[in-house]
Amino acid sequence: MGSLISRPSGLLLLGLFACKGGEDTGDAEKAAVTGDTYTGLLRTLTFTHSEQTAQGEVSAGFDLDGAVTAFGDETGCGIPDMVAPDGTTGIDNNFARLLPALEATEAVAVYGLIQAAINSGELLLIFEVSGVDSLENDDDVTFTLHRGMGQPLLDTDDFVSAGQTLDKDPSVAPIIVSKQRIVDGTLDVRGIESLFLPIQVFEVALDLYAFDAGFHIDFEEDGSYTGYFAGGTPIQPFIELSQTAAIDGALAATLQAVLPNLADLAPNDAGACQNISVTFEYTGVPAWLYADEG
After folding, report:
1. Closest among 252, 215, 227, 217 to 2, alpha carbons compared
2. Which pTM does this prediction carry?
3. What mean pLDDT is reported for the chain?
4. Angstrom distances, CA of residue 35 to CA of 129, 130, 131, 203
């Protein structure tokens, strides 16, 4: 049986985006004329795991469906929600429950491949927070998420270096969400209709989306960024992938056996959930973007 991954594009490489969230983009750009702009380049990216603690199963993430689901409830296909580290209930990150099984297969290679894609410039995710009067508390800022392009500079630790200037990918429309709030040094962006998540496994290209997504930013004292983003990803493309001959048998069996029982979002008319909640965590460094020509 072949290996899961044969090239740097890997199991899951996030591109962007093909949609917007929040206000009309023209109004958003006008609203961002005043105040400072902070730009972050994602330096590392990985799946967010959960952890069993005395307060329950804990994970960073968002309440994506607006419900706090206990076992057997009508919401969330009856799959219990998690708890955030700060005690917030209703956190949806069910893909984390699949990770131990995936990491026992060749899928574990995806972590190194995602990092390689960032370092090579294949996967450059760049956000801007503009119209900022205070990084501690600000009631009106604009969030923009870009796809970058080009070969990034790397530091001595072999990660993308801080302070470099990068180009936007003109072929990919940015996501712009206005009228967001920084509270106690963090920004939680909601209202993102979807993030486009292209997946490449061998010769199979899968176009996935994370619907009703959120993006969390912590502004660190040293100027760096940490955070996570989350959404609901359809399980059907993964099921179809598991039925091909291109992936390892252990991984195929895991996907077929586990995924349908972990879907927790977007129930169909029969009540079966079609999407699974997933959260990615990242670290970021300050960066710059070249100004648009003209």
Report:
1. 252
2. 0.87
3. 86
4. 10, 7, 4, 46
